[in-house]
Amino acid sequence: MNIDYPFHFDSRGRTAETNDDDHIRDMIEEFLFTNPGERVNRPDFGSGLLQLVFAPNSPELAAALQVTIQAGLLREKPPLNGLDYLEVGEDQLTLSVYFLGKAPEHIGAANVRIEGGRRVRDVAVREVHVHRNPNLELDDRMEVTVDKRGDFSNYTLRLVNDPHNPEDHLLENFDARYTELYFSFKAGCPSNLDCKTFDVCPPEPRVEPEINYLAKDYASFRQLILDRLALVMPDWQERHVPDIGIVLVEVLAYVGDYLSYYQDAVGTEAYLGTARQRISVRRHARLVDYEMHEGCNARACNARAWICLSTNSDIVEPPLDANDLFFLALRDDGVLPAAAVLSREDIERVPASQYEIFEPIEKNPIPVYHAHNDIHFYTWGDRECCLPRGATRATLTFSMNAQSGGGPITDKQSGNGSASASAHSTSSTAWPYRSSTPCSIFVSRTA
After folding, report:
1. What is the topology classification, in CATH, of domain 83-183?
2. What distance in Å separates the CA atoms of residue 34 and residue 77, rounded to the nearest whole number?
């Protein structure tokens, strides 16, 4: 006898009864709409579905709810079994069949039948191995090995009680609706079939916003936003500065101004011909294997220049002391005494605004040689020898012997104005082409 749910009396005053199909539906409904803990004697009965009515919808929630309800229904269902699904192995000879619960105690190859197929028919079952899960709440599975691979058509795997008796097809304690599975041996094979359907309807016309691309600064952005608000919010007429709407407009205009400047700066620094920052030029030069330093400011110094000395005698013992050596570069209107070597008293009589003071970069002693005043290029027999533009190396006729000594050799940079030297030097000379010889001194402007 199956009692109808919810409990009520029939027309005769007796307990209402129902058939098997309606009874199963009543049991599922009773499980779905009962919360765990609602029944005192069965606190674990129920799905808790009503507690998730207002939960945020998501694929994760749907999957978790499906697993929970399926496990609960299998736990509360009548003692019936069934087939859940199957998977075809890569060799297409092994089928993994999953049960809805536990597998029958006695099941073999004779209880499994495979039907169907078009080109390949009569697929026979060779072996059946049942893998029983020790956890009572988890399902068992069965591996079925067949003798040959099927074609692309659909097949049916059916469990039977007696293969020789077509009438006796239902296993004991098996649900009649879950005794067979439909599958294809070629489900995992690659296919050229595209399941996407083409939309034959024309797309809806898109309404493009009206954008003024001439707005590039704070004032134009502010006016553009106010004009847009006047169109979409005609009732808002406030223009007072403390108003929250004006504050938001000005904040957005400021952000737009900053982003516009950043956009222009990125486009400008992206090319070597328009780059303004030294770091951008340095990165462009690095792409063609040209090494470029960070600049003078990165080295915590000021302007630098090359100074070439000319002397009438060797100054070797002792050499020039770099700590007591300074060079003066006149400004356009500056006037210095005619002597090339000046004392501190001579410099003090000249206004400081008429000259710039340079000091040597290297603090080591500086030897000066008379033989380095004039060093000629070796022309290799060519009377009209000319250095090509951009040349950085040349062969000299001067022999660098041990008596010539050494000196500071540094980078070459340009300096403005004339130069005067103190202590043993007579004049200053600039060479259009020269090698880094010990008579060249790299100096830096003092602060």
Report:
1. Immunoglobulin-like (2.60.40)
2. 15
